[in-house]
Amino acid sequence: MTENEIFILEDDLTTRAMLKVVLEKAGYQPVFFADGEALIAKSRHASPACILLDLCLPGRSGLDVLGRLTDRTCPAPILMVSGQGDIPTAVHALRIGAADFVEKPFSPADLVARIESAGAGQPVHSAGPLDHFKQSRGLTRRECEVLDHLIAGSSSKAIARKLGISPRTIEDHRARILQKAGVKTTAQLSIMALKDRTAAFGRRTVH
């Protein structure tokens, strides 16, 4: 493993320049790739400290590259980065092998903290983290049901129809779940609920 290298698949030149400054200041060596195939080929012979994949790319998407890397059992933690990611996309990325899902815009300190956390070897994308989250946050049975539907991307009205209760009641449950989790949005909640070390993630905020 190359301890300080971070492989980055990002096509936006402004974001590339920002990442270069932020990561070098944090002691990392960013290595940029023009396309997913080049990154995949390089990863066959080198294992960086971390890999950053932009979700929306020309040609092969970041999720496609993530799938290829995890199929090859790439040992480096992989972070998906996106300014357009919705909840189902974030959940899917975590389940197929991403160590984290970072929403743009993000603060430099937050990104570095995510990279360091991923490098600590936090396991994700299993059935266990969600069950652990429900238990550790003291969710009621109904709140657990609502959480499952929220993570699936269902709206409050759709959840209300499925559970046979009012949308207002769903919103009340959602508010209590967010309060117990210590986050402000459903997107943050969904990502947190699928991570194994919820306490570590809870100290950070998705911007």
From TrEMBL:
<dbReference type="GO" id="GO:0003677">
    <property type="term" value="F:DNA binding"/>
</dbReference>
<dbReference type="Pfam" id="PF00196">
    <property type="entry name" value="GerE"/>
</dbReference>
<dbReference type="GO" id="GO:0006355">
    <property type="term" value="P:regulation of DNA-templated transcription"/>
</dbReference>
<dbReference type="InterPro" id="IPR000792">
    <property type="entry name" value="Tscrpt_reg_LuxR_C"/>
</dbReference>
<dbReference type="InterPro" id="IPR036388">
    <property type="entry name" value="WH-like_DNA-bd_sf"/>
</dbReference>
<dbReference type="InterPro" id="IPR039420">
    <property type="entry name" value="WalR-like"/>
</dbReference>
<dbReference type="Pfam" id="PF00072">
    <property type="entry name" value="Response_reg"/>
</dbReference>
<dbReference type="InterPro" id="IPR011006">
    <property type="entry name" value="CheY-like_superfamily"/>
</dbReference>
<dbReference type="GO" id="GO:0000160">
    <property type="term" value="P:phosphorelay signal transduction system"/>
</dbReference>
<protein>
    <submittedName>
        <fullName>Response regulator</fullName>
    </submittedName>
</protein>
<dbReference type="InterPro" id="IPR016032">
    <property type="entry name" value="Sig_transdc_resp-reg_C-effctor"/>
</dbReference>
<dbReference type="InterPro" id="IPR001789">
    <property type="entry name" value="Sig_transdc_resp-reg_receiver"/>
</dbReference>
